Amino acid sequence: MKSLDKADFDMEIIESMIAKLDEMKLQLEELAREYEKNVASLSSKAQEARVAIQFLSNTLTSPLTTKPIIQETPKAKKLTQKPEKSRAKNLRKLSSLVAQILVAMAELTKSGSKITSSSIRNQLVSMGVFSYETLGLATITSRINYLRSERKFIVVKTKKGRETTYEFTEAGKKHLEAMTKKQG
User: Fold this and answer.
1) To 5 degrees, how large is the angle CA 71–CA 115–CA 103?
2) CA 137, CA 71: separation in Å to the nearest integer?
3) Measured between alpha carbons, how far is 103 from 101 in angstroms, rounded to an integer?
4) Is the Cβ–Cβ distance between 130 and 124 less than 8 Å?
5) CA-to-CA distance for 35 and 44, rounded, in angstroms?
6) For 32, what's the count of Cα atoms within 13 Å in the CB-facing half-sphere?
7) Residue 12, exposed/middle/buried by CB under 10 A (0-12, 13-18, 19+)?
8) Among 92, 113, 124, 144, who pairs with 108 as Cys (CB 3.0-4.6 Å)?
9) Using CA atoms, how far apart are residues 25 and 28, in angstroms rounded to an integer?
10) H-helix or E-strand containing 2?
11) Per-residue confidence of the chain (184 residues) as pLDDT tens digits?
12) Reduced to 3 states, what is the DSSP secondary structure of residue 144?
């Protein structure tokens, strides 16, 4: 009789172990599904980053670099006493940065994140588009004040705290339109 009780007891242990194994199997299947989802998501994000980088690469080697996408507003131009050569160089540099900012803004809009200068800078870095240090854009990026909501102007603070207002050129408006369509 005792051996029968022991056999029942052994069966209970085995059944309990089988139940635990079934539970573990379900958990592992769930983890596998989660892993596949994460891999798909990462792959999608990597693809988006590649597209953004390719877009920027095209932008920075396109005529937009020679034809700036922004220009000083007539009022700001009157107030600036910089020589034409240094003004053109600054505009090219700033145009490239604005192009990058527009891509970052498109990404932030797509993810439903709030657009602030801080979130734009973080987005640029997370996209692997540039690191401020290596491209020497730290001073410009930190001085970007804001892109107005209607996106017609960009205001940049100078080192002395003065603000310069830029507006989009015709090439810039086309670029902006293309970016808006890309977001939609």
Assistant:
1) 55
2) 19
3) 5
4) yes
5) 14
6) 6
7) exposed
8) 113
9) 5
10) helix 2-61
11) 445 555 566 777 778 888 888 888 888 888 888 888 888 877 777 777 666 666 655 555 444 445 666 777 776 666 556 666 666 776 776 677 677 777 777 777 778 888 776 777 777 777 766 554 434 444 444 444 444 444 556 666 555 666 666 777 777 777 666 655 554 4
12) strand
What residue spans define the domains of the chain?
1-61, 63-183
CB atoms within 10 A of CB 119: 16
For residue 145, how many other CB atoms are within 10 A of its CB? 13
Contact by Cβ (8 Å): 115, 105? yes
Which tokens hold the place of 111? 């993810």
- Facing residues of 146 across strands? 155
**Does residue 184 sit in helix, strand or coil?**
coil
Distance CA 184, CA 177 (A): 11
